[in-house]
TrEMBL record:
Keywords: Cytoplasm, Lipid-binding, Transport. Forms a beta-barrel structure that accommodates hydrophobic ligands in its interior. InterPro entries: Calycin, Fatty_acid-bd, ILBP. GO terms for biological process: fatty acid transport. Pfam families: Lipocalin_7 (PF14651). It comes from Pygocentrus nattereri. CDD domains: FABP1. GO terms for molecular function: fatty acid binding. It is found in: Cytoplasm. One of its GO terms (cellular component) is cytoplasm. Residues 5-22 form the Cytosolic fatty-acid binding proteins domain. Binds free fatty acids and their coenzyme A derivatives, bilirubin, and some other small molecules in the cytoplasm. Involved in intracellular lipid transport. Belongs to the calycin superfamily. Fatty-acid binding protein (FABP) family. This is Fatty acid-binding protein, liver.
Length: 127
């Protein structure tokens, strides 16, 4: 299954506690919790470009599976890391946060971020 497509956030769990733990200011957490972000994924073989638009904030990361890339975190910091692919899952660890993005079926994308015992789960549907 190809990841390419546009996905709209349907539901999320653990947003506020997770964002607080990574140091996002309370005002941004408050603004961001009700915004339905859109993720656009362009996949060409092992090359990916992921654009996440949340209100006025646009986060763009480009990477090749298995190769080191500079990726922007949720807090805007740039970190070098390697994205791996296992079946329908893309995995990466940034600053102690493990991110797993899974294409569970043709129309559902689930992104799970884990930091210690905190989990932030986002479910998006293809639009």
């Amino acid at each position: 299954m190809a990841f390419s497509g546009k996905y709209q956030l349907e539901s999320q769990e653990g947003f506020e506690a997770f964002m607080k733990a990574i140091g996002l200011p309370d005002d941004l957490i408050e603004k961001g919790k009700d915004i339905k972000s859109t993720s656009e994924i362009e996949q060409n073989g092992d090359n990916f470009k992921v654009t996440v638009t949340t209100g006025a904030k646009v986060l763009v990361n480009s990477f090749t599976v298995g190769q080191e890339a500079e990726l922007e975190t949720l807090t805007g910091e740039k970190v070098k890391s390697v994205v791996t692919k296992e079946g329908n899952k893309l995995k990466v660890t940034l600053k102690g946060i493990e991110s797993v993005t899974e294409l569970v079926n043709a129309n559902t994308l689930v992104n799970t971020l884990t930091l210690g015992n905190l989990t932030y789960k986002r479910v998006s549907k293809r639009v």
